[in-house]
Every structure is written in structure tokens, then in C-alpha cells.
Amino acid sequence: MAEARQIAIDVRDAVKRYGDFTALKRISLSIHDNEFFTLLGPSGCGKTTLLRMIAGFEDVTEGGIFLYGKEIEDLPPNRRPVNTVFQNYALFPHMTVLENVMFPLEMLGKGREARARAGEMLELVQLSQFANRKPNQLSGGQQQRVALARALAPQPKVLLLDEPLSALDLKLRKAMQIELKHIQRETGITFIFVTHDQEEALTMSDRIAVMSAGELQQLGTPGEIYEYPRNMFVADFIGETNLLEVSVDAFAEGRAVCHLGGGHEMKVDAVEGIGVGSKVHLSVRPERLFLTDEKIDPDALHATVLENVFVGTNIMTIVDLDDGPNFTIRAANSDRGNARVFPEGSPVFVNGDRGAARLLVD
Amino acid sequence: MASNTDVRNYPGFVGITILCLVILYAPLIVVTVYSFNASASITVWEGVSLRWYADVFTGPDSEKFKTAAVNSFSIAIMAATTATVIATCAATAMVRGGRFRGRTLSFGLISLPLMVPEIVTAVATLIFFNAIGFTRGYTTILAAHIAFCIPFAYLPIAARMQGIEGTYEQAAQDLYATKVQAFRYVLLPLMGPGIISGFLLAFIISLDDFIITNFVKGAGVETLPTAIFGSVKQGIKPNIMAISTMLLGVSVVMVTISYFVSKKDNTQ
């Protein structure tokens, strides 16, 4: 996997304006061949607009979009070797499942092989026995698979998925996430997936582009984005975090000493661009903190338990650093490890892993 | 479950309902029942008979009614077909054309004829044909019928089209269909029930029309409604009731088909 990978979709300085409103503010990103790529962001961040620009439903105000090096801006949707799985599936209600899947092949003039190929696709999504049903006789999850089979049948160079799982219930959604990932591996087709669900993005993607307000906030693997958020938006949007305003007092052994207020200090990996005296934000992941009743680690912070919240898999504890900010700490609900529930009002020490806290560059 | 807001609990509900139904249907029932009367009188009941139905087909007036029926049905079929094609195009432009300039005005222009008193349309059409020097006859009736059938065909077609989401066509185009193919293979089949409804409605409207037809028809050319009116002027004979009952039957059949077709929703 180390060799330079081909670029499937290259978005160069793409801008989208609707009258006075700028939906996309000069976005550039490259999506690799055979990659599961996710555009993640809250609604209105421009992710769907970008997807529709790649599909050909929206034109590009400025900049360009390239598919394997070829500019596709002037091609209408039916001339782009790119297919979409729509949010509401858009299965043709007057056609059977099989006819739906055969449709793109027939439009491409491949009528002869259409039936066999459509059959294969239905097998891939495990719906062969429903070939002669109408879409409205299927459940939401089954319709979703038909939409997927239909979009994959013509073997597009890139498959676009516009929040395809949002209408499914939680269990089915989880199962489909895994299945989608398998299908992507099996077919080797580049997937571009749009979602506002950060967990879904982390589960499925090779790389994620986090977007907000028409701008690209951060691009990286799920691990990079989660562990090294670049700014407050990303840290807050992906996972749960304690966001604190801190000042950097000094550096020691490559670590920045951050003042949290109330005389509390925390040592955090130094980040380029943040010097002594800077007031910056610190993101501390609650699941990487743990509580002890004795001060084992010399850097542990003294605090008082405010509240324990039971969330099933986890127990969330909110503590008050004496004269300092509040912290949320998340512990697995298990008898193993350090998980231990301290009653409200008890004095505790807050300990963290080395990577628990990250300084945010901007 | 029988809550206070149930209309059936309102005082006088049953009485008013029965009154309305009687006013609406009593005349039709009287005509239908008396069309099976054996008597030559229209008021005295003498027993059940199909005599007057036979009279319509074989009696002295049968030739006149046959010609009128042929005219009526051929005009209704052609007018409804043409109006449906035009209305389908209009609905496509109005519903799928986005926001173009004059869209509201266009909608007004299409539906205005429904509000205009028919007598006004009739006089206007007559004056128009005179002005351009058309000889009145079969062709003028057909032209007038096409024109006034368009809004009637338009309404169910446009209503249907509004219920079809734009993503179907987008999906079709995304799946390599050209615009024409997307229309032919996806939009048109989905519009089918609306188009059939529109056609049937236009057909009934054309078949039933009296006022406009009476103005624009030439001497000697009759449709069923004008022929019936002509006969009635010379006194009501029971054979008129038989014809009316048959015409009523055709209307009921058409409306029933239209109802079931429009209920067959294939967009879900």
C-alpha cells in the first residue's frame, strides 16, 4: 500500500455560490483510488453540495473537479462514470427490483448482459429472492441494498453515497456500516460517503474530511482525526471532549506545561506553532482520564466528584478541579481495570494517559 | 373513539345529509326509473319495459340520435386525446420547469377557463370563429372542445406530477439515462395514472358539453346533448329518458375508472 496511489477524484479550489451565499469556500482535496472516503460535517456544511457537484447535479462556480485526471465539469450526470446512492434511495416505484438494477445497464446499451449482471449484483447484496418484488414491498434496509446494487451494477469509477443509512434504525445501520465496508473492499470501487454521524465516519472510512461552514477543517485517517484534532471544531465534533482554555507557561522535555486555572497544571505534548505565553485551547478526551483516591502519579490533579451518570456501557463522572474547571471522565462499565465509582463529594485524583490531552493549533 | 369533534355527533347531521342526497339524486333516479316505463306518458307508470330503449335504436328518431352519438363520441375521443397531450406538456413545463418568469401567470392562464362563465366562453369562441371566417360545423366543435378540455385534463396531471419527487429523474440521469430517456422510462410511467385521469375527465366534459357546442355547431350538425335538447323542445318523450340514462351510465363508468386509476398510486 506504500506505492503512490492513483487519485480518483481531485477537487481543485472548488467554490460554490448560490447568489450571495457561498456554500463551498474554495475546497481542495484528493480522493485516492479504491478508498473509502467520508465527507463528515453538520448539516449545511456543504458536504452534500460537494457530492452533488461530483455527481453533476450542481455546477461548479469556480475551480475544477477531475476524475482520474480528466476534467468532468462540463459532462452532464449521465455522461459521468459516477453513480449515486440517494438518501431516499429513489428506487423507481413502477419497476421491480431486478428492473431497477438492470436500468443503468440498459441505458448504457448493455441490455444483453443486463439480466445476468443485475442478478450478480442482487446476490452481492443478498436480495436475489426479492428480484421480482416492487420496491414498496421491501423494508427500508432492503430498499437501501437495492439502491446500492443498482448504483454498483454499471461498475462506476466512483460511488457516491449521500447519507444512505440515515433512515435506518440503529441496529440495522450498524450492520449496514460493516456490510458497506465489505462491499467496498470486495468491489474495489472508490466510495465517497457523506454523513453527519461521526461514529459512522470513524467506523467505515479510510480517510475523513471534516467540513464545517463550507470549509475543510481537517483531513486524515479516523485515528489522526480523533487523536490529533487540529481545531476546536474538529475536537468538539468528533467524539466527546473536555475543551479548556489554557495558557502555556513553560516547556519541559518536549512537553508544554499548561495552566488550567486555579493553580492546576497539565503536561501536554508540545505542538509546533504554540509558544510560551500563548492562550490556546486544550482538548482532553474523557475516556483517557481515570480517577484514583491516592496520588500515585505526581502530575495527577486534585478534584471533587460532582456527579456520576450511568450510560450503560460507560459511567460518566463529572469532577470539579478545586478552584479550576470541571472535567468529564468516562470509564468502561466493567469490574476490570481502573473503573471504580467514587460517591459524590469524595475527593479524588484525576490521572491521564500521555495522549489524553491535545493542544489545538487554531 | 366517538369524540365530540366527530361530525356525526353534530345536531341535524342525519337530516341534512339525507336532504342533500335527495336533492342531488332524486331527479336522476326519477329519470332512470321512468326510462323503464311501459307507458308513452312521462308521468303515468304502467309497468317495466325496455320499450323506449328499443325505440332509441329503432324508432323514428334513431337515425338522428345515432349520428349525434357518433359525433359526440368521436369528438370526445379526439378532443380528450389532444387536450391530454397538450396538458401533459404544460404540466411538465409548469412543475418541472423550475421558477421561470411568468410561471404564476401561466398557471392562471391555464386554469382561468374553469372560472369563466361557460356562456362567455361560448360567445367568445363563436365570435372568434366568425372573425377568422371559419364555417361552423364538426371542425369548429372539435376545436372548441380541445380548447376547453385542456384545463380539465391539466389539473389531475399536474397534481400527479407534483407528487413525483425530482430525485427519480435525477437518479435516472445519474444512471446514464439522457433527459429524453429519463422522461420516457421514469417520469411518464409514474405520471400514467394522472394522464389517464385527465383524459377521462376531459372525455366526460367534452361528451356532456351543451352550451359551447350549441353556439359553435353549424346547422345540421348535432351532438348528443344538442340532439336531446332539440327533441325536448318538441315535448319530452320517454325515449329521451332512455338516452339520458345511457349517457348517465357512460359518465358513471368513466368517473369510476378515473377514481380507481388515480387511487392506484405507484410512487410509493
TrEMBL record, chain A:
Catalytic function, reaction form: ATP + H2O + polyamine-[polyamine-binding protein]Side 1 = ADP + phosphate + polyamineSide 2 + [polyamine-binding protein]Side 1
EC category name: translocase
Enzyme Commission designation: 7.6.2.11
Quaternary state and interactors: The complex is composed of two ATP-binding proteins (PotA), two transmembrane proteins (PotB and PotC) and a solute-binding protein (PotD).
Family as reported in the entry's similarity comment: Belongs to the ABC transporter superfamily. Spermidine/putrescine importer (TC 3.A.1.11.1) family.
Annotated PANTHER family: SPERMIDINE/PUTRESCINE IMPORT ATP-BINDING PROTEIN POTA (PTHR42781), SPERMIDINE_PUTRESCINE IMPORT ATP-BINDING PROTEIN POTA (PTHR42781:SF4)
Name of the featured protein: Spermidine/putrescine import ATP-binding protein PotA
Organism: Aliiruegeria haliotis
UniProtKB/TrEMBL annotation, chain B:
Membrane-spanning residues: 12-36, 73-95, 107-132, 138-157, 185-207, 240-261
Pfam families according to UniProt: BPD_transp_1
One GO location term (cellular component): plasma membrane
Membrane topology field: Multi-pass membrane protein
Cell compartment(s), UniProt: Cell inner membrane; Cell membrane
Keywords on record: Cell inner membrane, Cell membrane, Membrane, Transmembrane, Transmembrane helix, Transport
GO biological process: transmembrane transport
Domain ABC transmembrane type-1: 69-258
Coiled coil stretches, renumbered: none
InterPro entries in UniProt: Bact_Polyamine_Transport, MetI-like, MetI-like_sf
Family affiliation: Belongs to the binding-protein-dependent transport system permease family. CysTW subfamily.
Function of the protein: Required for the activity of the bacterial periplasmic transport system of putrescine and spermidine.
Protein name: Spermidine/putrescine transport system permease protein PotC
Species, as recorded: Aliiruegeria haliotis
Lineage: Bacteria, Pseudomonadati, Pseudomonadota, Alphaproteobacteria, Rhodobacterales
